Amino acid sequence: MPQFEIGDRFMALAKTSKIQHVCQPNAILTFKEYLLDYAGPATRKAGEAAIREHLAQIPNAAIRAETERRLERIAAGERDLYF
After folding, report:
1. Which residue from 28, 53, 70, 72 puts its CA 20 to 30 A from 80's CA?
2. Residue 9 domain-assigned (yes or no)
3. Cα of 76 vs its chain's centroid, Å
4. Containing structural domain, residue 51
5. Total domain count for the chain?
């Protein structure tokens, strides 16, 4: 997705207060990429626990389920999966 499209999408979500529904899932996805690409074993273990904790805090079941699916895709090697 070109950078300007990401910015336009962000502004549309921010102006309607819908950004709150995607910030935490996007942070979780980005953190998972970091853990897989750069973290050592101890950090990865702690990070995976944090991901489980924060997944449970996503109030919308559909968004939580989609976040879990995207986490699986990241674990399989995909990157840059955002809401």
Report:
1. 53
2. no
3. 15
4. 21-83
5. 1
Is 8 part of any domain? no
The structure's pTM equals 0.80
Q: Is 33 exposed, middle or buried (0-12, 13-18, 19+ CB in 10 A)?
A: middle
For the chain (83 residues), the mean pLDDT of every run of 10, in chain order, is 63 67 93 98 98 96 97 98 90
Establish if 71 belongs to a structural domain: yes
Those residues with Cβ within 8 angstroms of residue 30's Cβ, 6 or more apart along the chain or in another chain: none
Decide if 2 is inside a domain. no
Which helix (H) or strand (E) element contains residue 3? Answer: helix 3-15
Half-sphere exposure (CA, 13 Å, Cβ side) for 71?
20
